[in-house]
């Protein structure tokens, strides 16, 4: 079997007395779309942020393309993070920069591209997500869906090997969810490797290669969508799925 | 023309020269204070754990001792003890700057802490070092937010600068005092000095207000009620 592009093993994280992650392991292969589901507080977001060390795990190991990230600090960490794109629930665009500058800045300051090169690349990415006409707008002048698409363009411009998406549509009005999911779907079709936490069950059902159900800091069950949504082995998985299916299937 | 008005008119060019010196002292102190305050604020928010209390100590020290005590301590005390020859003007700028740095650092610290945590996270997620994230993402936003606090600080230093007359800095207050003791026109002259300070305060606040408007991020409305 092909070596996983990203692998994490035994990730643990606690805040004070509360254990958020209790030794979580997973791996993802090139081109795969893996979707994390589970109730709030299950540790999905913490897991995603531990993967690129935005949150420091207390224990656990991380490999990218078979190479272990040993010293999660300094140059090695910055280099690793460039290869792992991150999309946040609340976009986190840089508020003082236009859409264009949001995409350019890391190209110039991190990848040391020239301004011209960075400009062309940023324009291309913004056009790809359908925002070619909005490049001079500031985040406060964009809708939520547009902001999230800028943040996707910003991540894509770094040529990531894998993308982590932390509930990318949870902060959006229902009518704006579709445009963001469409961009993510297109990325999947182009072969982007993605690990995504979401409550968009219909999306997960249609496109995920694998669904991972998390609860209380542990992966309870993982498998293809048909299995997880159809005949999950675990009682809690079935319970959760039937509840969210009821809620979400009619407002996709 | 009444004698009092004449005295003021006579002294006006001399006092206006003094206001130029006042402005240089104030701008010098604010500039020096700014250069110190930004690293202090960054150190207090993002610095290593051992450094943060040291910044707090600095702030406590320079906010806690009266300006006049510091001026005398530096000018008559330190400069003599260390046998260094600094002009009263230089000491005024340095002392006001050191004190202002303490206040300014807290303005910047508050602004930095009011930014959403996601700004730093997003910068880090793109592979930026913390230094780059602070320089290109955090500070440009924090400094914008600091302008209202900064205009407050300007008006305070402007008035504090009058105290430096005690060292013999030839600013507005020193010159007014000098003329008043010779002409005995205390009332009109000190009123004129006060008026000059009012104008300088107004000018500075207008200038900073203009700057605030100029660098405002489009789409962010003022809170207008």
Helix and strand layout, with pairings?
The complex is a heterodimer of chains A (252) and B (225).
Chain A: E1 6-15, E2 18-28, E3 33-37, H1 44-51, E4 59-64, E5 67-68, H2 74-82, E6 84-87, H3 99-109, H4 115-128, H5 144-156, E7 162-166, H6 174-189, E8 194-197, H7 201-207, E9 210-215, E10 218-223, H8 225-231, H9 235-248
Parallel strand pairs in A: 3-8, 3-9, 6-7, 7-8
Antiparallel strand pairs in A: 1-2, 1-4, 4-5, 9-10
Chain B: H1 3-46, H2 52-64, H3 67-81, H4 88-114, H5 117-125, H6 130-160, H7 172-183, H8 186-214
Question: What do these coordinates show?
Answer:
The complex is a heterodimer of chains A (252) and B (225). By secondary structure, chain A is of the alpha/beta class. Chain A has two domains: 128 residues, P-loop containing nucleotide triphosphate hydrolases (Rossmann fold); 53 residues, no CATH class. Chain A is 39% helix and 23% strand. Chain A has nine helices and ten strands. Chain A has a six-stranded mixed β-sheet with strand order 6-7-8-3-9-10, sandwiched between helices. A four-stranded antiparallel β-sheet of chain A has the order 2-1-4-5, with helices on one face. In chain A, β1 and β2 form a beta hairpin. Chain A is globular. Chain B is mainly α. Chain B has a domain of 149 residues: MetI-like (MetI-like fold, Orthogonal Bundle). Chain B is built from eight helices and no strands. Chains A and B meet through α2, β6, α3 and α5 of A and α5 and α6 of B.
């Amino acid at each position: 079997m092909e070596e996983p592009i990203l692998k994490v093993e035994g990730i643990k994280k606690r805040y004070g007395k509360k254990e958020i992650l209790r030794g979580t392991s997973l791996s993802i292969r090139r081109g795969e779309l893996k979707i994390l589901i589970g109730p709030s507080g299950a540790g999905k977001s913490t897991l995603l942020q531990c993967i690129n060390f935005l949150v420091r795990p207390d224990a656990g190991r991380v490999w990218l393309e078979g190479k272990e990230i040993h010293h999660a600090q300094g140059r090695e960490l910055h280099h690793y993070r460039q290869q792992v794109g991150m999309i946040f629930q609340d976009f986190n665009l840089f508020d003082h920069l236009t859409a264009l500058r949001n995409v350019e800045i890391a190209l110039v300051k991190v990848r040391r591209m020239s301004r011209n090169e960075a400009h062309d690349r940023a324009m291309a990415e913004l056009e790809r997500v359908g925002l070619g006409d909005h490049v001079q707008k500031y985040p406060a002048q964009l809708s939520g869906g547009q902001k999230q698409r800028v943040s996707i363009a910003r991540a894509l411009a770094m040529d990531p090997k894998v993308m982590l998406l932390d509930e990318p549509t949870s902060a959006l009005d229902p009518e704006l969810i579709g445009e963001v999911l469409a961009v993510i779907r297109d990325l999947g079709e182009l072969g982007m490797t993605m690990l995504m936490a979401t409550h968009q069950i219909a999306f997960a059902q249609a496109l995920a290669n694998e669904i991972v159900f998390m609860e209380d800091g542990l992966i309870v069950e993982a498998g293809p969508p048909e299995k997880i949504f159809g005949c999950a082995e675990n009682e809690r998985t079935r319970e959760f799925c039937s509840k969210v299916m009821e809620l979400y299937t009619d407002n996709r | 023309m009444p004698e009092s008005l004449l005295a003021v008119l006579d002294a006006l060019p001399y006092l206006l020269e003094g206001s130029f010196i006042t402005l240089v002292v104030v701008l010098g102190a604010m500039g020096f204070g700014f250069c110190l305050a930004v690293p202090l604020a960054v150190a207090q928010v993002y610095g290593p754990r051992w450094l943060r209390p040291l910044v707090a100590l600095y702030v406590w020290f320079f906010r806690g001792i009266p300006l006049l005590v510091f001026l005398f301590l530096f000018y008559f005390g330190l400069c003599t003890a260390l046998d260094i020859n600094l002009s009263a003007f230089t000491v005024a700028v340095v002392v006001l700057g050191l004190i202002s740095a303490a206040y300014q650092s807290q303005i910047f610290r508050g602004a930095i802490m009011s930014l959403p945590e996601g700004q730093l996270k997003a910068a880090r997620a793109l592979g930026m070092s913390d230094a780059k994230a602070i320089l290109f993402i955090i500070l440009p936003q924090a400094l914008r937010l600091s302008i209202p606090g900064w205009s407050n600080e300007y008006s305070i230093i402007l008035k504090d600068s009058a105290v430096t007359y005690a060292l013999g800095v030839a600013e507005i207050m020193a010159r007014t005092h000098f003329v008043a003791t010779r002409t005995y026109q205390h009332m009109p002259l000190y009123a004129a000095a006060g008026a000059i300070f009012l104008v300088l305060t107004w000018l500075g606040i207008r200038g900073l207000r203009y700057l605030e408007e100029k660098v405002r991020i489009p789409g962010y409305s003022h809170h207008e009620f």
